[in-house]
Each structure stands twice: as structure tokens, then as C-alpha cells.
Amino acid sequence: MSAIDRVRILVLGDSGVGKTSFVHLAAHNEPLRSPSWTVGSSVEVKLHEYKEGMKEQKTFFVEFWDIGGSHSHRNARSVFYNPCHGAILVHDLTNGKSEKNLHKWVREIGKNSRERKSSTSLNILSNSPGIGIDIEFDQESYIGNTSTIPYLVIGTKVDQSDDRKTRSESVATSLGCDEIVMDCRQTRYLAAGTSNAVKLSRFYDRAIETRAKSHKDSFTERFGDPISPTLSTKFYSPHQD
Ligand SMILES: Nc1nc2c(ncn2[C@@H]2O[C@H](COP(=O)(O)OP(=O)(O)OP(=O)(O)O)[C@@H](O)[C@H]2O)c(=O)[nH]1
Ligand SMILES: [Mg+2]
Fold first, then answer.
1. What is the pLDDT of residues 161-196, one digit of tens each?
2. Which CATH number fits domain 5-223: 3.40.630.30, 3.40.50.300, 1.10.150.20, 2.40.50.140?
3. Could you tell me if the CB of 144 is within 6 A of ligand 1?
């Protein structure tokens, strides 16, 4: 039997927003009654069918790397960031600051990615109502990551929030990704067939494609592109008429 491939998803956001609660629900299909504060990171795994029902269908392990959000542990977190095939950004709908802070988490991914090049300052998310933020960050790695890894934004504690749509959509819109608004203590928010379940499944599929692409890129880096003109000429021209 062949081994099942794994895809690695980072779950990021401020302390107390509900990352561990979300991951538990997504991985076990049942709510976590009394989560404790995550120190460092914890990993949960679930099986996912890539492109279910299609001829490309294949089973993968999705690894959720649930990173403790405490500010005091930020320096120790970098060890968890590589490799990263996708990121779930979690904020608490009752705490607007946790949404604004998502830009810091995106920046942490950028800072800890492999490629570090020129530094610059850009105004990211500035088109979003209420979250115009100037950020000093590593432009190449930020852009590299935003363009190469998929994101999903989760707004938690919808059961306690009145102000749902405008806040939760803005970061997701800026990143060009889907969003899910939910109560992490209720199974029905991720039930099979719901639009949330479809968004999650689509996100896992994108992460799997990102992983496949990064594997192909590192192969190409080491051995060259197997279908590049150079290789074609070298290996096939002697057999041509
Ligand atoms: N009402 C409500 N409470 C929630 C929801 N999600 C999480 N909680 C509660 O919020 C608290 C913090 O949740 P955690 O899942 O531990 O948060 P975390 O983001 O993992 O926090 P750190 O591990 O410190 O980074 C817990 O008491 C959860 O039960 C939700 O959707 N609604
Ligand atoms: Mg936690």
C-alpha cells in the first residue's frame, strides 16, 4: 500500500480567537468542550479526498499546525512555518483588533518563508474599510506567499457578534480568498454539504496543488525541467529523422 501524502496548513491568529476550537471541530467533527491555551504548537490531522468524485481523486492527510497566538512566544514560532502549503487566518468577530492583526500573521508567514529579498513598505489592505494599515515587510516573500499559498479567513464567535458581514469580509477580500463565519462550538457550521464545508474542501484542494507545485519546482531547480527545450533536444534529437 502506498503511503498517504501530507499537506501542511498553518492556523494563525491572536490568542483566544478560537484556533484550537476550530481545528478540533474540523479534524474530529465534534466540538472541543474546554480548550486550553496552546503553548508552541499542536498538530491535528484529518483525511481529505482531493477532487472527490473526479478521476483525479486522491486521499491526503491534512495537517493543521495550530500555532499558539501568544505574543510572548512570537520569537519561537518561526520553526513551525516551513514548509507551508496554505494558511487559515482566524479572528474573533467580537474583537475587531484580532481582525486587524491578521496582517501581522500574514507578515509572519512572509518573514519566515524561505525567500528573503528586498525590504519595502507597502500599504496592504488599505482598500478595506477600517483596516488601512502601513506595514514594514519583506515584499518579495510577502507577495511570493500571497501569490503561491492559498488563504482562508475564519471569523469565530458569530454567536456573540452582531456585526458580521462587513468586518469578516474585508480581510478575505484583500487577500482574495474565501471566508467562513462560524461558531466553533457547533458542528452544524462545518456540516457536509454546507457552503462552509465546500469552502474548506476547496481550500484543502488548493493547498494540495500548492504542495504539488512546490515539489515540482524543487525538482526542476535540482534536475532541470524535464520538458524544457534543452532536455528535449539533448535526449530526443538523435532519434529524429
Ligand atoms: N462563544 C464562542 N466561543 C468560542 C468560539 N470559538 C472558541 N470559543 C471559546 O474561546 C476560547 C478560546 O478558544 P481557543 O480555541 O482556545 O483559542 P486559541 O485561538 O486556540 O487560543 P491560543 O491557544 O491562546 O492561541 C475558549 O473558551 C473557546 O471555548 C465560538 O465560535 N463561539
Ligand atoms: Mg489554542
1. 886 555 545 789 899 999 999 999 999 999 999 999
2. 3.40.50.300
3. no
| pTM of the predicted structure, to 2 decimals | 0.80
Which protein residues have a CB closer than 5 Å to ligand 2 (ion)?
Answer: 20, 38
- Total residues belonging to the chain: 241
Q: Tell me: the pLDDT tens digits for 216-229? A: 666 666 667 655 44
- Return the exposure string of 66-91: e unless at least 16 CB atoms fall within 10 Å of the residue's CB, then b: bbbbbeeeeeebeebbeebbbbbbbb
**Cell 486521499 identifies what position?**
59
What are the structural domain ranges in the chain?
5-223
Q: What is the CA(17)–ligand 2 centre distance, in A?
A: 8
